[in-house]
Amino acid sequence: MNTAPSACDLTRRDLMDMDALLMQELGKFIQCSHHALYFPTAHAPRQPELLPRERRLLLPLYRQGSLLGVLMLHGVKVRDARALLPQLPAIAGLCLELLARVKATRVDAVTGLATENVLYGAMEDEAARVRELFADPSRGDGEHSPLHRLCMGLVLLHFSNGREIVGRMGFRFADELMRRAAEALREELPSDVVAARVGRFGMALLLPSVSGRSACQKTAEAALARMAGAALPAPLTGRTIRPRLSAGHAVYPQDMEGAELRLPMFEQARMLMERARLAARMTSQPGAPRVMPFARILQDGGTVLRALPQGRVRVGLGAQAKAREGMRFAVWGPSGQDGAGNPYKGEVVLLQVREFHSVAETVHLADATAPLEAGDRLSLLEVPSLAAFPHAPGGRAAAADVPGTPGQEGSAAADTEPDGAPAAGSVREGRARIPALEDGACAGIYGHGDFLHLFAQEKERTGRFVLAIVRVDVPHDARQEAALGECLAAWRQIPELCAGEPLAGLYGSNALIFFHADSSAEALLPHYTALCARLEAAGLPVSAGLAGYPFLHYRKGEMPDCALKALEYAQLLPPPRAGLCNSLALNISADRRYALGDVFGAIDEYKLALLADAENVLARNSLGVCMAALGRYHEARRHFLEALRYKGDAGPERQARIAQTHYNLGTVCQQLGERRSAARYYRECIKDAPEHVYAHLRLGQLCEEGGRRNEARRFYELAAAIEDRQSEQAGEQRPSLARRYLARLAARQRHGGEARELLHDTLLRNPFDAAAMLLLARLYLDGDEDPAMAELLARKSVGLRDTPEGWQVLARALRALGREEEASLAEAHASVG
């Protein structure tokens, strides 16, 4: 069998990565309270050494005659350890053999990369970590990147000619080519990136804590450049055979939708892989780039597959690429023979979206003699809005739909919003000109495009209306139509919802939309709640979002966006899930913007939420967090103090909210250098929430900065005890910031052994703690141990969190290894950062 050389040999890095498993196996023979790994470069013990007075045991770890490291066990039982001393080398050897076998199951035999299951496990863990950080944006360590940088990137590298190579050259030749490509891929790959083999002809890179799609793009381009050099001569002809490579990438959670984020991590990891795979597949189309982000598939990754009758075409964009009905695309032909750019051929709008393709209708042609044909490329013009849709009888947009479109008059029609009826005729006459659906489970209502056209007309005939979107949460397959039919039938059985002949239609492929003229959202909410309850009882999960006009300063054309915000809010509620577009809905929409890095957009929506309800303490608190993120601490303090003025309803939620506000005030005062005020607010926070971990940590920081190290240790130990209680209640081991702070304090007090034990414990609980890795690297360098391990930890640290301190430690480790040129580059990076 063609295997990667030394794929299963243990290294010192493997000891670090499988530290928890090593201690689990050793724990079957000997118990200890703490442990630490050492990597001495000289004077390492040959046999286990017991230090009875200190209750410590030094256990050297040898494999195949070479020293991997020395394990120091603290808090052992002296009598048991002394009895085991003769057998400990054999026990350690068995444990290392187990680690080697475990590593063999995690490594692909051909490429030496991680297996697909290992990659999925890492993706699930990383996605869970990202979700935790998004769920608590006010984490108290103050050392994480901004929220918009806390994302996970996945790059998929695809061998598009893999089957062709196997067919012509055989499987052994293809495996050898894959092995060489994997070797090239591993060169200069950051140590925190997980490289794995995926499928028969694919490799994947998992990038934790990337800054976004640009980091994935650069990583993919660099990997393709290195792998391009992998080549083999054909056995018979001597002709050089190279892999034809392309790449796609997706980012979590930006490339996931709201409902998908509630799925188990098992499902989310595989959905992200499918999106990266789809992006890589799109690169095979003519004229496509070699690297395609999933987010750009809709922008410019679509093509016309074939022409259909009645001016329609089939396009290669489906629900998997987040296409939905109503999206408009410009169509571009192939470039001319004279090297001219792609000619503009016209516009299409999506009418029916399937899993992998869609049917689109031609809105207009730039040249009637040049019809749309297979191979033409698409570029997105706009995301569909219910207020602006270019589908109307005759292929022209109504003036009220798209203000200012060339060839139309009255470009301000969408903004004038008269209360009286225009001269377009009655509502009944307008609906009679457009036929409703005649077959299927949703017969009797309008298709997506026809509803949009009618809504654009009817919203101008009333000064008060409600727009409601009801979404069914079932998989995107044949069951959706039946579920929508069941939802529509239940809606028709509620007289209050059918009163006044409301306009009903499809909204995308998994939702219904209703327009109620001369109604109020507050009056209709109980009836939509009853609809959701009835369907939930029948086993059909649904959610409904309602937006009523007038609302704040929103125009009629902006009500659809308000309905979507209400729907997003409703999906977070317990069943029956029905919600209004109100202050809380705007608050949640702003939270989402903040999580995606749009701080200024979030500030605008938080202010609108306060305009809708001045006593929305959540919005005021969040507004203060945004101001603090922008460095405007005085404004942040003003908003937090305003939040304390509104008491709200009594109860545990109010007490927790007040505690969080006090904590936020403490962090702002600490940033402003007002230590006494900060300490006062932290103590107020602990008074309302005695289990608030971060308030204890911040108080410890203030004490440490003031030189009161014993008092600081007391606060850190209290925080560690709270973390242990919370982990016990949750039934799982959680990350421990308090132990990292205790380790830093111990290192400053010259207690290197204690610091090392605490850091190992910290990294066992959270393998992605960049600050703990950096501190441990410093300890290895200060102890004159293996600088290669310090380099590994420092590289991981700067990969997770780019700081000047991290690059300085990396430079020190590289210099200890004699790599002066690389050390100078790291120092330059530190000075730039």
What is the structure about, briefly put?
InterPro entries: GGDEF_dom, Nucleotide_cyclase, Rev_trsase/Diguanyl_cyclase, TMTC_O-mannosyltransferase, TPR-like_helical_dom_sf, TPR_rpt. 47% of the residues lie in helices and 16% in strands.
Q: So what's the overall shape? A: globular
Structural class comes to: alpha+beta
CATH architecture label name of the domain at 116-136 and 147-284: 2-Layer Sandwich
Cα(first) to Cα(last) distance is 48 Å
Q: Give start-end ranges of low-pLDDT stretches.
A: 1-7, 137-148, 384-425
Please report the first level of CATH classification, the CATH class of the domain at 116-136 and 147-284. Answer: Alpha Beta
- Compute the CA-based radius of gyration: 31 Å
CATH fold group of the domain at 116-136 and 147-284: Alpha-Beta Plaits
> How would you sum up the major sheet?
6 strands, antiparallel
What's the CATH H-level superfamily name of the domain at 116-136 and 147-284? Answer: Reverse transcriptase/Diguanylate cyclase domain
| Helix content bin | 40-55%
Strand content: 15-25%
* β-strand number: 22
List the helices and strands and how they pair.
Elements: H1 12-17, H2 19-26, E1 34-38, E2 49-51, E3 56-63, E4 66-74, H3 78-84, H4 88-106, H5 116-135, E5 151-159, H6 162-169, H7 171-186, E6 194-198, E7 202-210, H8 213-227, E8 232-233, E9 240-241, E10 245-252, H9 265-282, E11 291-293, H10 295-300, E12 304-308, E13 312-315, E14 328-332, E15 344-353, E16 358-365, E17 377-382, H11 413-416, H12 427-432, H13 448-458, E18 465-472, H14 479-492, H15 495-498, E19 503-506, E20 511-517, H16 521-537, E21 542-549, H17 559-570, E22 577-580, H18 583-595, H19 599-612, H20 617-629, H21 633-645, H22 652-671, H23 675-688, H24 693-705, H25 709-730, H26 737-748, H27 752-765, H28 770-782, H29 787-800, H30 804-816, H31 820-832
Parallel strand pairs: 10-11, 21-22
Antiparallel strand pairs: 1-4, 2-3, 3-4, 5-7, 5-10, 6-7, 8-9, 12-13, 13-16, 14-15, 14-17, 15-16, 18-20, 18-21, 19-20
Helix pairs in contact: 2-4, 5-9, 6-7, 7-8, 14-16, 17-18, 18-19, 18-20, 19-20, 20-21, 20-22, 21-22, 22-23, 23-24, 24-25, 25-26, 26-27, 26-28, 27-28, 28-29, 28-30, 29-30, 30-31
Protein name: TPR repeat
Organism: Desulfovibrio piger
GO molecular function: mannosyltransferase activity
